[in-house]
Design brief:
Length: 197
């Protein structure tokens, strides 16, 4: 009815002859258009809800891995402030010994995965924003500073060259080099918005 009324009003304003007859001929088309529009709205809401649910699951799995690495580093370096170490990726890389090198790689892979989710997965920004709202300040700092490992361009680039994602690494490496700074800035803005509330 809404579509018919809108079309009729438009056609009357344009002073077209035989509006009612024309609309009667177009009834099936108008009905299909109305049906498709309603279906698009309903499916859009369903897709949005499903995407947010999937992204929440993605983030929770990755954040569990990030906090696990932090806890393991805390055990390996009981006399160091691991949170301060993560603040400076250079200091972090210099401090960890051979025993923790595997944790460094896990931290880097997690950070790359989280960056990919943020940049390419639908509703990732909304999902992470809702997770961040439930974080303590310390949890937020652990998460944010663990992402600072992405500033180690040379080491991470070498990991790509050494086969982190296989032989066809050029697109993945370009994505990392082109987008990592923007990703970290996005996270800092997200944190600023969270802490200002």
């Amino acid at each position: 009815m809404f579509f018919n009324a809108t079309l009729a009003s438009g056609m009357h304003m344009a002073m077209l002859p035989g509006v009612e007859e024309t609309l009667q001929k177009w009834a099936a088309i108008v009905s299909k258009l109305a049906s498709d529009c309603v279906a698009a709205v309903i499916e859009g809401f369903a897709d949005r809800h499903n995407n947010v649910r999937l992204r929440l699951a993605d983030y929770r799995a990755k954040l569990t891995a990030v906090f696990d690495v932090f806890a393991r580093l805390d055990v390996i370096f009981p006399e160091e402030d691991v949170l301060d170490m993560l603040q400076s990726p250079k200091t972090f890389m210099e401090t960890i010994n051979y025993e923790a090198r595997d944790l460094e790689k896990v931290l880097i892979v997690n950070a790359l995965d989280l960056m990919y989710i943020w940049m390419y997965q639908p509703r990732a920004n909304k999902a992470l924003s809702s997770i961040v709202e439930g974080m303590t300040k310390e949890e937020w700092l652990i998460f944010l500073r663990s992402q600072y490992v992405l500033k180690r361009y040379r080491e991470i680039s070498q990991m790509f060259v050494d086969g982190l994602v296989g032989k066809n690494f050029s697109k993945a490496l370009a994505f990392y080099l082109d987008r990592s700074d923007a990703y970290l800035q996005d996270l800092e803005r997200l944190g600023a918005a969270h802490t200002s509330r």
